[in-house]
Amino acid sequence: MPVARFPQIRLPLVALLTAACAAGLVQAPAHAAQAPADDERALRRQLQELTTAPGGPPGAIAVLERGSRTEVYRAGVAKTGTGRPIKATDHMRIASTAKAYSGAVALRLVDRGELRLNDTIGKVLPRLPRAWHRVTLRQLLNHTSGLPDFSANPEFLALVTKNPRHHFDSRRLLDFVADEPLLFRPGARYAYSNSDNIAVALMAEAATDCRYEDLLAQLVYHPLRLRDTSLPQGYRMPEPYMHGYDVTPSDPPEDVSEVLSASGVWASGGIISTPKDMTAFIRGYAGGKLISDRTRRQQRKWVNGASEPAGPGKNKAGLAIFRYTTRCGVVYGHTGNFPGYTQLIAATPDGKRSLTVSLTTQINKTNKPELLERLRTVEENFVCALLRKK
């Protein structure tokens, strides 16, 4: 019998798959205030310079919306070896911005009285380890739960290393860390963990007796008219899509778009969408179309903590949303990174202005710290353009 051959990932898996984030408020890059002027020509140049920087993405797109006016900035290509530019309707992996979607599901269920923010794992998911039973939905949503991160577990990583397309039972991902205690007393501090949003999705399923994928469709996709958004289990990407790459200087970019199975990240980062749909999502989510004012007030009780990777300006964490305080003003949103992709979605508190930035390589503080700081500066300049009076 021939030995099966699976795609290999060039970068260390721990750097690619884990999303550990140091607790505390993240400051804006020191040079942000001296960044170039945020006129359209400068923004296009800055996006282009990201694609030509060492380790930079082969392609990048930024979508700004002010009311009904849309501006699209592009650089590079959707696939190396072609001249095709990225389009706002190209599919991509949205990485940890998917955590905002699981947050939207949970908060809508809170509004409907099917969950409460103070509901505990012990009450809703009693099969999970007794040591975790005091953790509340609120603590899962703002990453103060102390749950150990399943994606950093050696057994999980060994399976992915052996076969990156390994099909996991998404609803059993927390089993990888079931014998581990909490990292700290629930609520004591902030620590970004992929386990949190797996537990959020499981609580939503337990409260409704509905599959999480169906809840996404019912509570998020349909109300916001997201027609090209899905949560698959496999590794295939729907056409057309922007190809994601591992970009290591001195080596040619390696296409990793379909290297990993989405089943191993599920509610913490498995969604596939488009810049157009992500724009519609963040405008509705940040602007309050999905949840009541009462629940939004709870969502916006901020704690010290940053998204992963850190977003523009100073970061603070709410319930499945982050506040980015830039030199030009405040936006709410989320970031994400996954092999081949880096994402930012952000909008003004009323949802009337929004920014979506998508890159076709993974950039975070572990694998490309200098490029991340450069990206955050560019993102802040786009936020300033977004907030500038017209």
Q: Which structural traits does this protein have?
A:
390 residues, alpha+beta, 8-stranded antiparallel β-sheet, two-stranded antiparallel sheet, 11 helices, 15% strand, disordered N terminus
Describe the structure.
By secondary structure, the chain is an alpha+beta fold. Helix content is about 30%, strand content about 15%. The strands form 3 sheets. An 8-stranded antiparallel beta sheet has the order 2-1-12-11-10-9-8-7, with helices on both faces. β1 and β2 (about 70-75) form a beta hairpin. α3 (about 100-110) runs parallel beside α7 and α3 (about 100-110) crosses α8 (about 210-225). The protein is globular and about 55 Å long. The N and C termini lie far apart (about 65 Å).
List the helices and strands and how they pair.
Elements (H helix, E strand, L loop, with lengths): L12 H5 L22 H13 L6 E8 L2 E8 L15 E2 L4 H14 L9 H4 L12 H5 L12 H9 L31 H15 L3 H13 L20 E2 L7 E2 L16 E2 L1 H13 L5 H7 L3 E2 L9 E4 L4 E5 L2 E10 L2 E7 L5 E7 L9 H19 L3
Antiparallel strand pairs: 1-2, 1-12, 3-6, 4-5, 7-8, 8-9, 9-10, 10-11, 11-12
Helix pairs in contact: 2-11, 3-7, 3-8
Helix content: 25-40%
Number of helices: 11
Flag low-confidence runs.
Answer: 1-7, 11-15, 19-24, 30-35
General shape:
globular
Q: Which sheet architecture does the biggest sheet show?
A: 8 strands, antiparallel
The helix-and-strand class reads: alpha+beta
Overall pLDDT score:
92
Number of strands: 12
The strand line-up of the biggest sheet is 2-1-12-11-10-9-8-7
Q: Which percent range describes the beta-strand content?
A: 15-25%
